[in-house]
Specification:
Distance between the termini: 31 Å
Low-confidence stretches: none
Helix content: under 10%
Strand order of the largest sheet: 2-8-4-5
Radius of gyration: 25 Å
Largest sheet: 4 strands, antiparallel
Structural class: mainly beta
Number of helices: 2
Length: 179
């Protein structure tokens, strides 16, 4: 798969998808500074066009000397002037609309796969392959980072479709080819 859509990721990672609207400000999200020079991931992706308000003990912290606002959260500068490891802070920010994909939370589902195509090796003749019952295995890897477009490789286990009981008919798959 070449599309990392939320639905494809959920399929590949046996997950679920929750769509979240943006624009509604989050007020007072609690966090702890883990260490200087580290990112504090927030509950949602941040909208970089709206500056956050970071507070320590109820007092706003100056961004320029303490942190950078990033989509993934608040990055605490290595030489922060006010913040130190272990500080309790709160963050007010506006999130982006996003989809949350929870991975490995769903049981395997059965899918019927139909490939309707042309056999280019045989003069473009029609071919249809039907796999009656398959379960996608969780993706072993997802190419998130690289110089090329990301790739999501799926494999599936082909299972018998026990609803097919006629002698001589395959419980697994059929191939129909144009002569």
């Amino acid at each position: 798969m070449l599309s990392f859509s939320p639905e494809n990721l959920a399929l590949a990672l046996r997950g679920s998808v929750t769509a979240n609207a943006g624009a509604v400000a989050i007020v007072g999200e609690a966090a702890t500074v883990p260490a200087l020079g580290s990112l504090i991931p927030l509950a949602r992706l941040g909208n970089l066009t709206v500056a956050p308000v970071v507070k320590k003990g109820g007092t706003p912290v100056v961004a320029a000397t303490n942190y950078e606002w990033r989509r993934g959260g608040v990055y605490v500068l290595p030489g922060a002037a006010t913040l130190v490891a272990g500080d309790a802070i709160t963050v007010d920010y506006t999130p982006l609309p996003d989809d949350l994909i929870q991975c490995l939370v769903a049981a395997a589902a059965d899918y019927r796969i139909v490939i309707d195509g042309l056999n280019e090796a045989a003069s473009g003749k029609a071919v249809r392959i039907e796999k009656h019952r398959c379960q996608f295995d969780p993706a072993q890897s997802v190419d998130w980072i690289g110089d090329e477009f990301g790739k999501l490789t799926l494999s599936a286990t082909q299972l018998a479709d026990t609803s097919i009981t006629t002698t001589g008919l395959s419980q697994y798959q059929t191939v129909r080819k144009e002569r």
